[in-house]
Amino acid sequence: MIFAKGIDRLKKIKKDRRNGVTSIHQTGSESVTMPESIDNHQGRKGHSPTGRERIKLDLLIHDLKVPLAVIEAGLLSLMNKREKYGPVTEKQERVFERALRNTKVLKTLVNDALELGKSEEGMVNYSKFALSALIEQALEELFDLTDTNASEEIKCCAKLATLREVLKNRGILLLVEEELWCEQICQDHAKVKQILRNLLNNALKYRKSLIELRIDRTNTSVVFSVKDDGEGIPVAFHKKIFKCYFQMDPDARSSCSVRGHGLGLAGVMVLVEDLGGKLFLDSDEGLGTRFLVKLPLISRT
């Protein structure tokens, strides 16, 4: 409960958002919507925690890392050092594996909350990195929480073709040119990875069978598109899914299977804006969902 309240406080910096959407029409019949932007500095005035509160909140979140590391190490020892701690039954192993997965989930949430805190303070760490390394790490972290075999297979992929095959077997299509895959870009690696991981995690939750991850670039920006073939999001709910902990009305859920996307999309929106980018949503009931993130490429001399 304390942790949830702490994260929620981070999002109050966006509380003055009017929660509207602006239609953006593209060529053909396709259209997408974009959550309304705000001026980061003006939008945070009066809503950002004071320096003292900020320190307390960061310490609270940071201090969760130590006990989580101890719990993870203990579980791994029980599972992997049976000659020392004794045999483990099949049922016990399943319980340990479930506890370990949830420990990793909580570690990811802690790291995400710390990254959001840095973003709120204007801390952006630009560096050069290969797009291939970024995508592979995001996928490894994603599957490490849900499919450890897939995570290990991804780590062993030395070529783009091999990675595509591993992902295809899990219902994910990776669409990127070989030249772009090997290219280096300059952005905040940790924040971009967090954005991708959250969007892919949502797509895994709501897909029927297929996810499409597309990567493109222009002269000034890199574009990530994450598309699923799920039930889609009715236009009436487009602006609401970017609120923290949003949940569909139970009566509405009976006519549409869309559920709340939780903190993930709220965090994605904050990070995209703080990196100077734009977030687009293309979805409607029964038509699947596509999130498109456009981030500026930073020039470094």
Describe the 3D structure:
With 301 residues, the protein is α+β, with helices and mostly antiparallel strands. The protein has two domains: 18-38 and 125-296, Heat Shock Protein 90 (2-Layer Sandwich), CATH 3.30.565.10; 49-123. 49% of the residues lie in helices and 18% in strands. The protein contains 13 helices and nine strands. The strands form three sheets. The chain has a five-stranded mixed beta sheet, with helices on one face. It has a two-stranded antiparallel sheet with strand order 1-2. The chain starts with a helix and ends in a 5-residue tail after the last strand.
SSE string, helix = H, strand = E?
Answer: HEEHHHHHEHHHEHEHEEHHEE
Total individual domains: 2
What is the typical, i.e. mean, pLDDT? 77
Q: C-alpha Rg, in Å?
A: 20 Å
CATH architecture of the largest domain: 2-Layer Sandwich
What is the approximate shape?
globular
Instruction: Count helical runs.
Output: 13
The portion of residues forming beta strands comes to: 15-25%
Sketch the major β-sheet.
5 strands, mixed
CATH-level-4 superfamily name of the largest domain? Histidine kinase-like ATPase, C-terminal domain
**What is the CA-CA span between the terminal residues?**
45 Å
Low-confidence runs: 1-7, 9-31, 38-47, 248-262
